[in-house]
Amino acid sequence: MTLLPDRHALLGPSGAHMWLACPPSARLGEQYPDTESDYTREGTLAHRLAELRLREQWEGRDITEQLQEVQASPFYNNAMAEHVADYVDFIAERMAEAKTRCPDPQLYIETEVHYEDYVPDGFGTSDACIIADGIMDVIDLKFGAGVPVEAKDNPQMRLYGLGQYLELSWAYRIDTVRMTIFQPRLGRISSSSIQAKELLDWAENELKPVAALAWAGGGEFHPGEDQCRWCKAAAVCRARAEYQLELAKYDFADPATMSWEDVGKVLARISDLTKWAEQVQAYAQSAAITHGQIIPGWKLVQGRSNRKYADEPAIAAALRKAGYKAGEIYKPKALLGLTAMEKLVGAKKLNQLAGQYIIKPEGAPALVPESDKRPAIHTAAQAAEDFKEDLT
Predict the structure, then answer these.
(1) Could you tell me if 244 and 146 lie in one domain?
(2) pLDDT tens for residues 148-158?
């Protein structure tokens, strides 16, 4: 095993949910460049910090210089340090548990794993893996604060587990692969276990044939919200466009004339449809601005803008000279928002210092799919109907 690589596999673990569900998407997206957002830069920095802290604790590394580089990043803050500390503590807990089963468990940190026996040129980088007799722990840090990620039936985690098992099963008796996704910003830990034999059966009978199709650029397109979310070709994929435009069969009908089944089908697709439309718009605008692409029926114009101060100190001086008081021309002081305050102070410390003054009001009712984990609530109309039934 080697340290974190500076390359990416076409059929890597992070994109497995995409190319396993939609095999041709891997080759289709290959022609489009990788993009990086502030969110991915923040996540990369958090992983770097986590790696350094783990190597400091378990390998005795001197991380002073590298830690200074991390802390100099504009994406570093006290909240990130707290969340990473929670992750490091979790690894320590799993190591302590492993020592109850095995006298010499091994921790592998940010290691490249390979599974070419089942996937052409298949490799990826595992955040953390604990090897001990009986159970192998594969642990993945996800620093995003958006979507909760489940470990159960997660192909990314299975590929990490498969690669680690193929590399290390000769040295330890591994019966079970336990996969854990650690999401500190959501306060969430998701774990799922699979027997080693079952994992190998999945790799041979499900993974291998689909990977061969994906590598060759074959198979059928199967657009969907999950597999299209991070696909680089999502904005221009014809199959996805046809999938989204299926809603046109409703011909923009009056919702009052649609059946509730039809309404449910439309609601299920609105979120993905909106994202797709935004991706198409962003792709077209970027092509027009960056590459001069002419799009029939559309043109580039100068966007609207708002007036702004060019020299605030000079404006303040001019107004003060004219007799206006500082309290009149400056905004009063205001506390930072909660998210910004947590980054400054740290979530735990802020809770210790002022947690009693922080509240979370009840959210407004929202219509969501039945798969959402939040409990259903009763509306006033439903409550009245229930009360009427109780009286009869």
Answers:
(1) no
(2) 999 999 999 99
